[in-house]
Amino acid sequence: MTLKRIHPLESPAPSTGPLVDTYDRIADDLRVSVTDRCNFRCTYCMPAEGLPWVQRADILTFEEIERLVGVFVGLGVTEIKLTGGEPTVRRDLPVLVRMLRRAHPGLAISMTSNGYLLDRLAKPLAEAGLDRVTISCDSLLRHRFAEMTRRDALDQVFAGMRAAEEAGLIPIKLNCVVIAGTNEEEVVDFARFARDTNYEVRFIEYMPLDAEQHWERAKVVPSARILESIGAVFPLVADGEGAEPATSYRFADGAPGAIGVIASVTEPFCDTCNRLRVTAEGQFRACLFAMQETDLRTPLRDGAPDEDIATAIRQAVWAKWEGHKINHPDFQRPDRSMSMIGG
Description:
The protein has about 350 residues and is α/β, with parallel strands linked by helices. The protein has one domain: TIM Barrel. It contains 10 helices and 14 strands. It has helices spanning about 60-75, 95-105, 120-130, 140-150, 155-165, 185-195, 225-230, 295-300, 305-320, 340; strands at about 20, 25, 30-35, 80-85, 110-115, 130-135, 175-180, 200-205, 235-240, 245-250, 260, 275-280, 285, 295. The strands form 2 sheets. It has a 12-stranded mixed β-sheet with strand order 9-10-11-8-7-6-5-4-3-12-13-14. The longest helix has 14 residues, at about 155-165.
């Protein structure tokens, strides 16, 4: 991956128009973490005892999130995804969704979740204005699911999937982190599950974002190998290209469902990335692997006008680097894990 810088980094960020960086990438997709807390302890994310949680007073309030989203929408963001941690552990989450929907009727609003609490929250969230949900599920086997999440909760997650579908939070997508020697053998079973449910199962390459820093390149299962394994049983056809990081495929025999692969490690998509992230405590990141953050909470709480916050966002996006360099010798991990950043 080698991007050509279109605009000089030393020149000022544009004061109007879309959120653009010096490589001419336009950012219009925002991830907003509503909490760093989680009710699972996935082995590739955090230790069994959890992490030091952000103090509640430092977490953005619903009103602060609503205001920040309004600033981003004014800068051209067209889609937001609520993340965590696990967003459903944030008390009164449907209230936030309702606030955002009333303020931005045309905004695409989705959520990532482990699904554990969706059996009771899917309907209220849908009624509040949530469009769809992406559910994390790394195994279809109860014992392996418990090993990977440190929670015996697979049946509850299945119930959450059903509740989300019944509530109309569709199309439902499942995220599956594939780790060699752990759940790699299940990829065909997940494809079969997609055919049976009409879900899209997206296989994500194991990334160096775990809090314990146990990531090993040898445990990365290349997306090409996943596609080969599935295609040998269920032939696939490409489903076109889009802004999503997932490359999607349909089943050649016309069966329902789909699969996708997110090749963050073996085939980075930094050159087309359109995503931005705000952490639960209001730190802005122009890249998941960014080494720097821009503090938006302090100006929010100090009474800064929206124009000043918008300028800070524009400057941070303008300074976005070429990419994460996972495959370069000088790669550096971010000092925060996925759950602390926001998925």
